[in-house]
Design brief:
- It is found in: Cell membrane.
- Pfam families: BPD_transp_2.
- It is a multi-pass membrane protein.
- There is one protein chain.
- By secondary structure, the chain is an all-alpha fold.
- It has a domain at 23-238.
- It has helices at residues 2-24, 29-50, 59-75, 80-102, 107-127, 129-132, 152-179, 181-191, 193-198, 203-229, 239-252, 258-277, 282-296, 300-315; strands at residues 138-139, 144-145, 148-149, 231-232.
- It has a two-stranded antiparallel ribbon with strand order 1-4. A two-stranded antiparallel ribbon has the order 2-3.
- Strand 2 and strand 3 form a beta hairpin.
- 45% of the residues are buried.
Length: 316
């Protein structure tokens, strides 16, 4: 029982703290909702980083999910769950199409091709004004959840806890996936792809599945972000957004799925504070934070927390 508590408590504690945060400080609910939205993207990137691959184009899937939610609200159903389903399916489909090409490449070629596709998507979103609203973007008018109409304030709370439940499920699913044969093959792709091929396992297929899964998670995050802000723009697909997602994954640590959540919450908190008190230099502050993490906590915030917790237990 004691062992079960020790392994389960660290996983539940961040989610419980996040659930309680808006109750303690209601003004932080929008920030926490956005943090969870980008947690999905960081979680998707964690899958690829486990395979030794970095994507500088995941903002494309994030934006695809956001626009799918906006289109769904306009033309299909103004319900949050329907919008989320459309976002996940759209981003997964886009990831499946682009993955046919991307899964052929590795390392810098994989990263740069992702970036190239993302910039093509950004340009199309910017130029197709009649469809995407161009630089003005599109409003996202969704005020119901599971068929229940909600006021603006109530919808914000419902969206927050819906996102929290989905994030908890996503963390569990990704953990199970990484511990499954396909997930272990994904990790083996980083160390010795040739050995995988000798065992009869296609490295390209392993990366392809991971890429599609990762794109679907990013699309889910895009839908949450779109409904949380009530607006989508092409800037969501810009390359700097993709770089932020990579930053968040590294900040939290790729050794555990909770690193995605810790990185996202920390990033949004620091960005919000820095934007308020140092609006012209918040990016410099984030750069200094990243350098400090790389130098002094290469395993990210999650690894740093484990080290500190381990030292405390050792003293006791």
């Amino acid at each position: 029982m004691k062992t079960y508590f020790k392994t389960t408590a660290p996983a539940c504690l961040p989610l419980l703290l996040l659930a309680a945060l808006p109750l303690i400080a209601p003004s932080l609910r929008p920030l926490a909702t956005m943090a969870m939205a980008i947690s999905f993207c960081a979680l998707g990137l964690l899958l690829l980083l486990r395979a030794g691959q970095v994507s500088f184009g995941h903002a494309l899937y994030f934006a695809c999910g956001a626009y799918a939610a906006a289109f769904g609200a306009r033309h299909v159903s103004a319900d949050a769950l329907a919008a989320i389903a459309m976002a996940v399916l759209s981003s997964a489909a886009l990831g499946a199409i682009l993955g046919l090409i991307l899964s052929r490449y590795r390392d810098i070629f994989y990263a740069m091709l992702n970036l190239a596709f993302s910039m093509v998507g950004f340009t199309l979103m910017l130029k197709l004004y009649g469809l995407t609203g161009g630089s003005d973007g599109l409003p996202v008018r969704i005020q119901s959840l599971a068929g229940v109409p909600l006021e603006v304030g109530a919808f914000g709370w419902a969206l927050f806890y819906t996102a929290l439940i989905m994030l908890a499920v996503a963390l569990l699913v990704v953990t199970r996936y990484l511990n499954s044969p396909p997930g272990q093959a994904l990790a083996a792709l980083k160390t010795n792809e040739t050995r995988l091929e000798y065992l009869g396992i296609s490295g390209r297929q392993v990366l392809y599945l991971g890429h599609v899964f990762s794109a679907a998670l990013a699309g889910l995050g895009g839908a949450i972000a779109a409904m949380g802000t009530g607006h989508v723009t092409p800037e969501m697909a810009y390359w700097s957004r993709s770089a932020e997602f990579v930053f968040i994954a590294v900040l939290g640590g790729i050794g555990n799925v909770l690193g995605a959540l810790l990185g996202a919450v920390s990033f949004e908190a620091v960005r919000s504070a820095a934007s308020a008190y140092a609006a012209n230099s918040w990016q410099l502050i984030m750069g200094v934070v990243l350098v400090a993490i790389v130098l002094f906590a290469p395993t990210g915030l999650f690894g740093l927390g484990l080290r500190l917790f381990g030292r405390k237990e050792a003293r006791q």
